Amino acid sequence: MSAKEKTMLIRTLLYIILTVLAVAFLSPVFIVFLNSFKGKLFISESPFSLPDKDTFAGLENYFSGLEKTGFFSAFGWSVFITVFSVIAIVLFTSMTAWYIVRVKNRFTKALYYIFVFSMIVPFQMVMFTMTKTAGELGLDTPWGIVVIYLGFGAGLAVFMFCGFLKSVPLEIEEAAMIDGCNPVQTFFMVVFPVLKPTAITVAILNAMWIWNDYLLPYLLIGSEYKTIPVAVQYLRGGYGSVDMGALMAMLVLSVIPIIVFYLFCQKYIIKGIVAGAVKG
Question: If you write DSSP's letter for every residue of 215-266 in order, what string do you get?
Answer without folding.
Answer: HHHHHHTTTTT--HHHHHHTTB-GGG-B-HHHHHHHHHHHHHHHHHHHHHHT
